[in-house]
Amino acid sequence: MSEQLTRSSKHIQKVLKKQKAYKRATAVAGTSMILAPVVGAAVPAQAESSQQAFINEIGNSAAAVANSNDMYASVMIAQALLESSYGSSGLASAPNYNLFGVKGSYNGQSVYMPTKEYLDGQWVTVTAAFRSYNSYAESFQDHANVIRSTAFGDTYHYSGVWKSNTSSYRDATAALAGSYATDPGYAEKLNWLIEAYNLTQYDWGAPVAQTASYSDTTGTVDTTIDTAASATATAETVASQSYTVANGDTLWDIAARFGTTVDNLMSLNGLTLDSVLSVGQTIQIG
């Protein structure tokens, strides 16, 4: 984890400082003064739109991975925004899709990039190998593997981040601040992102209701899919369906939605992890 601040981290620090300064000022002025939101004016509309678009792009992938790994999607998305400068870093962009700055290689894939490291008492620029993924979904899954499997002896290092060991996302961000990052303000930054962008909407799997078009044995219908119900779809129901790809869909999203696996979808449709889905493409579910 680099100690250098990303642009998103710098922005959040500025906003938090403004909020604290404003609260101190209103405390002096008196309780009759109503706190006006300062976050809205802190980000230009164009940048805000771009950031929200990126969240829309990665949200469902994060939800699918988090839901199957006992984690908070809101926290995963907030970490991705913070670590990748809202997806704008070279490492996070295509074709690398590395949202969390993870070093090393992934399935033999890596990319070499300059990075700042603290060596012998000073910051120096070095060239290091970072993991390269085929999609954001792979980046989220690899991050989940780290959070779920890192252990020292019989103790899981990040168990305090798991949903089953917490009462809210704030417990998870507090645990990350003490184990994942050395930045004392890490939890506060994540909490700000979660609240500013309403990321808790992703915390129960994929968004609760999504409109999709799919066909069954009786013809094509438009319906609103309850993802909680569809995640438990029976094999008989799945076997009779095909799905029309919508904007932002990934194989992981579709698999989670219909209660099947990515491997099954790839086998049925002659796809690989490198395949790019097209809007309007028909995917056989079973």
Automatic annotation (TrEMBL):
Record SUPFAM superfamilies: LysM domain
PROSITE patterns annotated for this entry? LYSM (PS51782)
Identify the residues that the record assigns to the LysM domain, covering every copy.
Answer: 241-285
Q: Which UniProt keywords apply?
A: Antimicrobial, Bacteriolytic enzyme, Hydrolase
Where on the tree of life does the source sit, at the highest rank?
Bacteria
Carries keyword Hydrolase?
yes
Q: Which CDD domains match?
A: LysM
Q: Name one GO molecular function term.
A: hydrolase activity
UniProt-listed GO biological process terms: defense response to bacterium; killing of cells of another organism
Q: Which family does it belong to?
A: Belongs to the glycosyl hydrolase 73 family.
Protein name as annotated: Peptidoglycan hydrolase
| Organism field | Enterococcus faecalis RP2S-4
